[in-house]
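Reviewers asked in the last cycle whether our approach scales beyond single polypeptides. To address this, we selected a multi-component target totalling 820 residues and predicted its structure end to end. The input consisted of the following lines:
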Amino acid sequence: MKTSNVIKTVGASLVLGLTLGAPSAQAEYPEKDVTYIIPFNPGGESDVTARLQEPPFKEITGKGFVFQYKTGAGGATGWSQLNQLPADGYTIMGFNLPHVILQPMGGNVGYKTEDLEIVYIFQLTPYSLNVPANSPYKTLEDYIDHAKKNPGAITVGGVGTNSAPHAAQTKFDHEAGIKTSYIPFTGTSASTAALLGNQIQAQWSFITVGVEQGDNVRMLAVAMDERHPLFPDVPTFKEKGIELSDGARRGVLVPKDTPEDIKKKLSDIMAQINKNEDFVKKMEEGGYVLIDVPYDEADEYMEGLSEDYQEVGRLLGLVK
Amino acid sequence: MLGYLFEALTPFNLMLAFMGVVAGVTIGAMPGLTATMAVAVLTPLTFTMEPASALIMLAAIYMGGIYGGCFAAVLLNTPGTPSSIATTFDGYPMAKRGDGALALSLATMASVVGGVVGVAMLLLVAPPLAKVALAFGPVEYFWLAVLGLTLVASLSEGSLLKGIMGACFGLLISFVGSAVIGGDLRFTFGNPTLTGGINIVVALIGLFCIPVVLDLVTTPDPHLEFSEDKHRGFRLMEAVRQMFGQKLNLVRSSAIGAFVGALPAAGGAIASLIAYSEARRSSKRSAHFGKGEPGGIVASEAANNATVGGGFIPTLVLGIPGTPPDAIILGALLVHGIRIGPSLFTEHSAIVYTFIFGLLIASLLMLPIGLFLGRYAFRGFVAIPKALLVPGILLMTILGTYAINNNLTEVFIMLALGVVGWVLARAGFSPAPIVLGVVLGQIAEQGFVQAWLIGTASDNLLGMYFGRPISLVILTLIVLSLGYPLLSSRLKGKLVQGSD
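The resulting structure, written as C-alpha cells, was:
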C-alpha cells in the first residue's frame, strides 16, 4: 500500500478506536469477568461460599468469576501477595477472620493486617464444640467436668495453629478454667475424620460440620447469641455462662491501589448478593450466618475485632 | 439399582464421559498439570448441567487424569501426576529399551482394571470400608508414610547409603515452608513464596524432567527409539498375554489402591508407591523391578486408578474427601444445592448411583481411548527430532509449573531443583528416593507430631506408636519390606557359596 494510504488507514482506525473506547471508560464496572482468588484449597468452605456467590453476581452484573487458588501457610501465601496483584478492580481475594489478625501477631508472615484493603465482610460461621455421637460427653457440663478432673487429657482437634478454632479453644479453656490438648489438623475434613474415628475426643469447628454430619456428631454448644434455628436443642455458650459468641468470618479483599469508586461498587454488589433469595437459602441451609459489613464500615469493624483478638493473642502466646 | 445404569448410559452422559476422559488424559499426560488441577479448572463448566451429568463428567476427567500421568512417566521419565511416580521406575527403562508401546498398553489395561475394581468396591462395600478407613488415625498415617519410605531401600539396591541420603534430602525439601503443626516458618529465607513450601509437583518436574532434558542435550543419542527386532504395532496381544501373567499383582494392587484411596487425605501417590513396594516384594522377579519389569507398571497404574473409586467411599458415605479432587467435587455438589454428608446416599441415591455407574463407564472408556492414544503417542514421540523435543519439553515444564500458582518464583525453584537433580544423578543418586522424601515427608511429619500430641495427652506415648492393631500390621509390612532385600541378597550369597 502507498505510505500515505497506510497513514490514513492507521489514523482512521486510531480515531475510531478512541471514540469507541472513550465511552467505555465511563461504562459500568464490571465489563468482564472478575478473578476471584481463594487462598485455600478447592472444595473447602472458603471456596464453596465464594462459588455460591457467583450465580447472584452473574444475575446482578452479567459477568462471572474466574476462580484461582493460591494456597499455603493457612492463607498467608495469598494475603502476602495481594498488593502485588493488578489493582484494576478485576482481581479480588477472599479472606478469613481471625486469621488475618492473628497471623501477623505471631510474627513475620509476609503481610500486616493493615495492608489488607477490605471491601466487604459477608459471612460468619459460628464456632461449635463437637463430639462424636457415641461420646461419653452428653452435655457441655460433662466435658468441662472431665477436663477439670483430668487437665490436658481431653484431645480436641481443630484446623491449623493460631487459627480460628485454636482461638476458640484458647478462649473457651480460659473462660471455663480448664486445660485441654489442642491437636492441629490441616483441614476441617481431616479433623472431622479424626473425630468420627475417635482418634480425638472432641473438635473445635463450626456449625457447618454439625449440619453436614447430622447424627454422627453431637454439638455440645454453639457460639452464637441465640440458638440456631436449625438446631433448637443445642445450647449456646452464653446460656452456659461462657462468653463465647464468635466464629470465623469471611470477606473480600482488593489490592490496595484499586480505584475508590470500584471499591464502593464492589461493596454494593456484595450487599446485593447477600440479599439474593437463592443465595441466602443455600447459605443458611449449610449453617452459615450472613452478616453485612460494607466498605465504609469495614475499618471500624476491624478495629473492634482487633481489640477483642488482642486478648486471644495474649492467651495464645502471640503477644507478650 | 440397575435402573441407574441405564440412566448413566444416556447418549448425553456417554458423550460427557468420553469428553471427560479425553480431557483428563490430555491434561494428566502433561507434566505440571495434575488431575486435581484438571478437575478444579473444568468444574465451573458443569454448573449449568444436571447434578448427575456434572458428576459423571468430573469423575471421567478425574479418572482420565490419573491414567494420563503414565504417558509422561513412560515417555519422559516424569510423572504426569504425582500418582504416576512409581510408573516411571519401570516405564521409562522399558521405553529406553524400545518397549515403550508395550509399556503404554500395559499401563492402559492396568488402569482400566484398577478403575473398575475401585468402582466395584465403592458400589459393594462402601459403608463398612468407610468405617475401617476412620480407624486410621495419625499414627497409622505416619507408619504408612514410613512404609512408603522403605521403598527407598528396594529402589537403591547397590547403594543403600545414597538412597537414604536422597530420601533425607527429599525430607528436607518437604520441611520448607510453614510447619504443618505449629505454623513456624522453616527455610523460607524471608521469601513469601516459600511460606507455602515447595510444591510437590514443582519438585517432581524439577527432579525428574530437567535431568532428562539435560541428558538429551549432553549426549548425542536420540531420546527413545524402537528396538529393531520388535514389532512396531501397539503390541496389544503381547500386552494382554503379559496381563494374564500378572493376575495376582493386578488384584492386589487394585485392592491396595482402592483401600488407600479410601483413607482421607491419602491419594494416588502413596497408593501406587505401596502397591509397587508390595508387588516387588512378592514377585519372583523382584530383582528386575526398576529395570523395566512389566509388573511394576501394572502395580502402579492399577493402584492409582483404583484410588478414584476408593476415594469416593469416604466422600459419599461421610462427606469427607478421600483425595483432593474429591474435595473439589464435593464443593461442586454443594454449589448444585446437594447436601453432602451421610445423608447423601439416602436423600439423593438416584444421583449417587447414576454417578457411580458413570465412573464405571469412564473406566471402561479408558481402554479404547488409551490404546488409540498410546499407539500414536509412542510412535509419534519417537519420531520427533531432538532439536524440537528439547525446547518443547522445556516449554511444557515451565508452563506446567507456572500454571500451578501463577508464580514465577516456583518456576525458578523447579529449574534449580532440576539442575541439582541432574548433578546428583551424575553422582549416582537417583531421583526416586528424593521424590519419595518430598511426597511422604509432610504426611509422615504430620502423623508423627499429631500422634505425639495425642499420646502425650493420654500419657501413653509408647502404646500410641506401637500398641495399636492396625499400626502393628503396617509395622510388620515395614519390617518385611526392609528385611526382604537384605534377606534375599544374603540367601543368594548362601546359594552361591553352597554351590561352590
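Chain A touches chain B through 59 residues (CB under 8 Å). We regard this as preliminary and will revisit it once experimental data from Aim 1 are available.
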